[in-house]
């Protein structure tokens, strides 16, 4: 039997979506906290959901929704601006097709983005330069207290100079369920400890649980010996490299987070 594939395209604004590939499902994240519904999008506030947590969990509200409301055999998450593609063209017609995904998953359990390399710093130092370090401290405490078997792998990953970022992946259903259950058990415990402080942060930094989860995918993959294949990611919108470079330099000379 052919597996049912469902790739969630997380979006908080209306954006161009794949029109010739029915495996891609636009999902409006944060639906519970807005009165505007996007035509043709699934809302993440149906069934069992955490849609109202979207300002803090970002695209993870789509992951949570699919865990309890999707019947797909293969589930993935991409973003309205970022898609898996072997082409560098900013063209939705060149993103991974159903056939591409089926062929790739014959050889591996999970598809992830190409590694993001930091070269001159570790994953941990990169996070601390970009975000509030207290969240990372609490994350490690939660893992040590509640998932101690993962602690050594977590420390090893945080010391590396690369990571699979963006909270993007495509997984077979059994792997998906196991990963999402593990991920949210940890994040909800972190939330209990730091949320009173988080609500005082600016709107960007309030997306803390989304940022933390980017550091956890590799931990879960490595600890559970899950095979994966890297696939390039194409950013569909224009990027302001001058602005990105300025932010990078600001973090390096001490104007980032602590």
Please provide a written account of the structure.
The chain is of the alpha/beta class and about 260 residues long. It has one domain. About 40% of the residues lie in helices and about 15% in strands. The chain is built from ten helices and eleven strands. The protein has helices at about 55, 60-70, 100-105, 125-130, 135-145, 150-160, 175-200, 210-215, 215-225, 240-250, and strands at about 5-10, 25-30, 40-45, 75-80, 80-85, 110-115, 115, 160-165, 170, 230, 235. The strands form three sheets. Strands 3-2-1-4-9-6-10 form a seven-stranded mixed sheet, with helices on both faces. The chain has a two-stranded antiparallel ribbon with strand order 5-11. Helix 5 crosses helix 7. The radius of gyration is 18 Å and the shape is globular. It starts with a strand and ends in a 6-residue tail after the last helix. The relative contact order is 0.17. Mean pLDDT is about 95; it is low at about 245-250.
Query: Helical residue percent?
Result: 25-40%
Distance between the termini: 52 Å
Backbone structural class: alpha/beta
Rounded to the nearest angstrom, the radius of gyration is: 18 Å
Low-confidence stretches: 244-249
Fraction of residues in β-strands: 15-25%
Shape: globular
Question: From N to C, what is the helix and strand string?
Answer: EEEHHEEHEEHHHEEHHHEEH
> Largest sheet, described in full?
7 strands, mixed
GO molecular function: glycosyltransferase activity
EC number: 2.4.1.-
Protein name: Glycosyltransferase
Organism: Leuconostoc gasicomitatum
